[in-house]
Amino acid sequence: DVGYSAEGRARSGMGVDSADFNEDGWMDLFVANIDEEIFSLYQNNRDQTFDDQAMTAGIGMATRWMSGWGLKFFDYDNDGNVDLFLANGFPDDLVEEFSSQVKYKEPPLLFQNTGGGFRNVSEQSGPVFAKSFSARGLAIGDFNNDGATDVLISVNDGAPVLLRNSIGTQNHWLGVKLVGTKSNPDAVGARIAYQAGDLKRNRMKVGGGSFLSSHDPRVVLGIGNRSKIDWVEVKWPQPSGAVERFTDLPLNRYITIVEGTGKWK
Predict the structure, then answer these.
(1) Whole-angstrom distance, CA of residue 44 vs CA of residue 60
(2) Spatial CA neighbour of 219 closest among 238, 205, 198
(3) By residue range, what is the domain housing residue 197?
């Protein structure tokens, strides 16, 4: 049950997102919680159950005293693995009067997916990670269209924080906007598979995630330093269920795929 910890304890549940972080073809979940509960990385067991892998994956203890709100899986460095960004802040601005461990304002956290777990790369990812905020919502989007997905954090009683991603452009990528015709217009629920040489990845187009936030509808497919995308395959959601495969694809730009046309533009 995704409402409980690995020890069977019920937890609060705050922000949530889903992605196939371990590339086994099944969607997993991440749930942020209140301080002392540790955040939850629920790995899909493929039998309608999930196991909390936050501790073994390298995320658990970093969130020990955090309270999480906005969060998102996305490939910030365009290496083909989905990473994880967390925006944090305790809900009560008087918490420091009765706790020495918990702070009202908390730093954001960035975890890089290494393919075998998650590594906390916050300290080396920019000065913003040394600052603390009463963060709430978190939205992702490529505001300057350079292929490196950026982050916007809403702050309680404060100005929003816009973080420009400066590392994603070091790798190659393809951005895809899906437009449904028989399926829903935003193609939520579509499965996108792609291959670039030895790299084969799957993504699902999700419709939300985080906390009270909406995201750039485009999906950025990272391929690392590989020089070509061999193919992209889209399985459109129901009621269509159609599958279309595309080749001769460009790199480092955005394309639009309209369901049923058999081509990109």
Answers:
(1) 17
(2) 205
(3) 13-258
